[in-house]
Amino acid sequence: MPDLWQDAMDHAVSLARTAGTLVREAVQNDMKVMLKSSSVDLVTKTDQKVEKLILESVKEKFPTHSFIGEESVAAGEPCKLSDSPTWIVDPVDGTTNFVHGYPFVAVSIGFAVNKKLEFGVVYSCIEDKMYTARRGKGAFCNGQPLQVSDQKEINQSIIATEFGSDRHVEVVDKIFSSMRNILCLPVHGIRGVGSAAINMCLVASGCVEAYYEMGIHCWDIAAGVVIVEEAGGVLMDVDGGPLDLMSRRVIAANNKMIAERISEQIDACAPLRDDRHSVEK
Ligand code: LIP
Fold first, then answer.
1. What residue numbers bound the domain in which 206 lies?
2. Which of 112, 145, 178 is a domain's end point?
3. Which ligand 1 atom minimizes the distance to the CA of 216?
4. The domain spanning residue 98 has which CATH number?
5. Does 122 lie in the same domain as 71?
């Protein structure tokens, strides 16, 4: 990777820190909560303000780069990954947590070139933990190297997942049947902090063996993908195939064996792909 991307990564870290300060300040104050696709799909002025700050700064410093951001897509921008250097941004990952003051909220910035993710920055801003990874250079939290767990037994593992924001009963049934199958393997426990990005960083940190979810978006996981891989972990689709960033399904695990055991238990659903959303909504 040319050093050019290091400049972009340094800028991403600095933007994440600035954005995190805005999020921390906003969490203390009253906030206006708005709805997106449903009454449980929340957005606030802070999501929009943080995305605007990141978007404007990227456009100014890297005018040729492309941008995919959660709130830009919600406002009608396309969600298409091209070969162009592309910033994939979730300004507030864990918006529901943010609204309720539940202390796991992240700014997530992934960066892809030729459709391959090159670096990821996740700032867990209430905890003040800055997770960073650049392809081929390792993963770090506040400068300390990260390593996934070496656990090989699924029945000695903790697995993270989330319920997402789709409340259609057939989707909820699949989420519960998947979770029941995994819980009864048995595993030591099932957890979830309410932020896909932070769940992935917990896999990279070695304190949960795997995280899976159906219904996430590319901006929730782009940065986490690099952080997990650079900490020695693996990514997979819930059907056991390769991860497809736009498919809205992910397994991130400490190793292939654990990822495959989870995949075998999942009652898969197929949410509308991110790259079809703008066409079909
Ligand atoms: C959220 C994720 C969460 C997932 C939700 C949603 P948002 O992101 O981080 O883990 O369950 O479906 O995608 O909307 O707070 O940026």
1. 154-277
2. 145
3. 13
4. 3.30.540.10
5. yes
104, 153, 109, 122: which is closest to 231 by C-alpha? Answer: 122
Specify the 3-state DSSP secondary structure of 170.
Answer: helix
Query: 103 in helix, strand or coil?
Result: coil
What amino acid occupies position 230? E
Residue 213 belongs to domain with CATH number: 3.40.190.80
Enter the tokens of residue 12: 């991403």
29 phi and psi, to 5 degrees?
-105, 170
Place of tokens 């689709």: 237
Q: Is residue 162 within 6 Å of ligand 1 at its C-beta? A: yes
- Quote the pLDDT of residue 2: 52
Contact 106, 88 (CB under 8 A): no
86 with 158, same domain? Answer: no
Among 220, 221, 225, 250, which residue has the most ligand 1 atoms within 8 Å of its CB, making it the best to mutate? 220
Q: Residue 49, Cα to own-chain centre: how many angstroms?
A: 19
Two tokens at 228? 């997990």
Give pTM, 2 decimals: 0.96
- Quick: pLDDT tens for 82-140: 999 999 999 999 999 999 999 999 999 999 999 999 999 999 999 999 999 999 999 99
User: Same domain for 169 and 140?
Assistant: no
Are 47 and 77 within one domain? yes
Instruction: In whole angstroms, give the CA distance from residue 66 to residue 59.
Output: 8
